[in-house]
Amino acid sequence: MKSSLSTGRHDEPVTHWDDYPLRDSMWQIKINYKHMKKQQDENHIFPEQYELFEKKIAGSPITRRSFFKRMGAGIASYLVVSDILAGPIAKSFTREAAEDTIGAWIHVNGEGRITCYTGKVEVGQNIRTSLAQVVAEELFVKVEDIQFIMGDTLLTPYDRGTFGSLTTPQMAPKLRKAAASVRELLKATAAKEWNTSSTSLQLEQGIVFHPSNGKRLSYAQLANGKKLAQRVNEDVQVVPVEDWKIAGTSVPKVNGKFYITGSHKYVSDLKLPDMQYGKVLRPPYLGAKLTSLDTSDAEKVQGVRVVKDGDFVGVTAPDSTTAKMALAMINAEWERKKQPSRKQLFSHLKENANKQPDKKPNVEEAFANGAKKVTSAFHVDYIAHTPLEPRAGLAEWKNGELNVWTGTQRPFGVQEELEKEFGLAKDKIRVRMPDTGSGYGGKHTGEAGIEAAKLAKAIGKPVKVNWTREEEFMWAYCRPAGLIEVRGALDANGKLAAWEMFNYNSGGAGIESPYDVPAKHQQFISSDTPLRQGSYRALASTANVFAIESVMNDLASEQGKDPMEFRMEHLSDERLRRVLKDTASKFGWEKEKRSDRGFGLACGFVKGGYVATCAEVYVDPETKEVKVLKLVTGFECGAILNPRHLKSQVLGCVLQGLGGALFEAVDFDNGQILNAAFSSYRVPRFKDIPETEVLLINRPDLPPAGAGEAPIIGVAPAIRNAIQDVTGERINKLPLVPSGKIRA
Amino acid sequence: MKINVNGKSHTINVSANPTLLEVLREQLELTGTKYGCGEAACGACRVMMDGTAVPACITPAVSAQGKDITTIEGLEKNGKLHPVQEAFLEEDVFQCAYCASGMIVSAVALLERNASPSREEIIEAMNGNICRCCTYPQIMAAIEKAKTSKA
């Protein structure tokens, strides 16, 4: 059956997923919610805050036995989950999941169509392109010949979510082996047919051929009528990096034309027959309780339905104009709950810490004996992701089954949320994620999808809920705010002797200083967060590296030492040394500068990415206005899969990071968000963009890592240190200059 | 009420006083034009009205009467991409691409007004368009390319 979705005029694969003859009974997923809840409570962490700790994860519904029932005949190679995950995560997973639980697969059908299935999703990282490159390389076909089905709880294997820069290091090398395994299966099938050895066979553009006798068989001919599925061969020979023709090149964004013609359908664009537009009544303040409600005026509007379920109140209408109007006609009163405001934020985080910082005697002693010391406290504000596409969800109930389309980085997580919300078995819930209007860690949850499902259930028609920008600011979650206290001391020779760092609330990733120091202690301490918080592009490491690199700068400055030289004296990690050295040299660290300009640098590594940033700033001597003139970023994340898209990710990270570094902050007062609009919450625009340079260091000898997060971490400290260089001011807060000027 | 969009006349219902954006997306199913902020602060909803890029999210549909509206869907003519679209495609500009329609419409309006804008003029004209993925340098490069290919 064709999809009932209004698909537009293009032939984008995402709209044809309903074509697959599916449904089986292999859907048995057990989640231990009680256990998850307990772990979260113990760690005082919000469910979406993955960087802070790995929680228990659910099993996959797809098994080897159900394979061809789903896919139709063909030749396939699959990965089981423990092939993809490593270490303690895999252990905790495989305890719950069956041995043969599949984590991804590649399938060649009887028409020669190559389809890859992964639960990862596309939110602008362009992994639909980079993963296809990897597979195309191994199968000797074009990127256009590969179709990727992503983030569909019915069609794709279970995946915990697309976050943590894990797609490239975990999925890419495994898909590469899976593709190579399929290739070997195709060759073996041809060899059998021709009664020859498969090592003598070669491939080109979807064909296996015998170089001496001229025999040829297409992938379609080979796969037709077969039911051949093998687990990925870990020892399979992959195409050596030096022979790459597709991987490692700048293949343009897959389906790029759909985006520049406006024909790609984001969730907010989808439409079903008889679909209604839904709006949800929100309190004016966070945490407010509904005390009185009068919906009578709204109910009188033609076509409007009002849905009430406890504190959940929503309306639906045949068009969004009417829905918006009906919502405004509801008279509601709310009881406001007293809660901390931004003014008290940092004292609140410290006073409500879930434990006291541990003191280490050796660090205390080394600090007491230090010749020069720096003690600093850093304040990091909440910031908002503000993905340009606000949360959107479309839901339809059909014969007791629920279909939800929503833009989320965790379709399987949303499926679990829906299971909990409606007490419905997972095999009755299908969540789909069309390529979405960005996330940056901000879309790990499924609010709009759940709201749409509630409304759709109540009125018996499909409902779409598109959040407004204001809702996105008020009711999504923020990057955590943090208080970071650092002490560092130098010995009489100017060498680092003591290092102590406590991070309250903003997370533990990147807290480990990369510098050599004999006595050190670092600790993340969770606290009570006034605002709802969650993941964000390198949320914790941005804060931690800001503090580390600021104190390193100030320790160098205390002894009148060049900050570059001071870092190199304490850095043993070869990859970080190289990226720092090369970046500084590209920037021209040694060059002369004007008296009203400052240079600053910062470096660090997180999630397999090594980064250094050099900044040049101008500070007006009269007005103290700060202008970032130039940012040079060096980045190394192993072998490069797609240079252009990698450069784009690095630049995107750096420029988005400019916002959090200079001016972004969520302002709030007793439960009210004071700047819930683009006119009052400033994000980087064309005018803010300095001269930028990106230096990509390719390491074909190392496995590739992700790039969507690490390049952001050096931006804020490099600018902060450049301001210090020219003015002597040590600004220990993010954002650095919300008004554009250094406060007098 | 009648409205001219992409060279065609359409009859629309304006009884609830919808915005131009709501009419385009819901009544005409031209969903290439996006909602981003609802206050003309992000540029995602820009369409051309008599050649000027305007924010459809705060434009009442009734005010479009008698005007020529061009949306992203109307730039491609006889299966041939507009040169600005061509340039954006060649430069492989986007990440999530949700801002793409508004960016391209703004750029087309700029180049129709000023065939050879300076870098400063491009920045000035585009500053109302937000790309949260921050592909700004690539967008600048695409506009520079479109400018050159037109010249």
Question: How would you characterize this protein structure?
Answer:
The complex is a heterodimer of chains A (744) and B (151). In chain A, helix 5 (127-139) packs parallel to helix 6 (167-194), helix 16 runs parallel beside helix 20 and helix 19 crosses helix 20. In chain A, strand 11 (305-309) and strand 12 form a beta hairpin. Chain A contains 20 helices and 30 strands. Chain A is α+β, with helices and mostly antiparallel strands. In chain A, the strands form eight sheets. Chain A has a seven-stranded mixed sheet, with helices on both faces. The model of chain A is unreliable at 1-61 and 86-99 (pLDDT under 50). Helix content of chain A is 29%, strand content 23%. Chain B has two domains: 2-71, Beta-grasp domain (Ubiquitin-like (UB roll)); 83-150, DNA polymerase, domain 1 (Orthogonal Bundle), CATH 1.10.150.120. Chain B is 36% helix and 13% strand. Chain B contains five helices and five strands, in the order ββαβββαααα. Chain B has a five-stranded mixed sheet with strand order 2-1-5-3-4, covered by helices on one side. The mean pLDDT of chain B is 97. At the A-B interface, helix 8, helix 10 and helix 19 of A face helix 1, helix 2, helix 3, helix 4 and helix 5 of B.
Number of strands of chain B: 5
- Beta-strand fraction estimate of chain A: 15-25%
N- and C-termini, Cα separation of chain B = 40 Å
Number of E-state strands of chain A: 30
Q: How many structurally independent domains of chain A?
A: 3
Radius of gyration of chain A (Å)? 27 Å
Oligomeric form: heterodimer
In the predicted model, the low-confidence regions of chain B spanning at least 5 consecutive residues are none
Parts with pLDDT < 50 across at least 5 consecutive residues of chain A: 1-61, 86-99
What is the strand arrangement across the widest sheet of chain B?
2-1-5-3-4
Number of helices of chain A: 20
Mean pLDDT of chain A: 88
CATH architecture of the largest domain in chain B: Roll
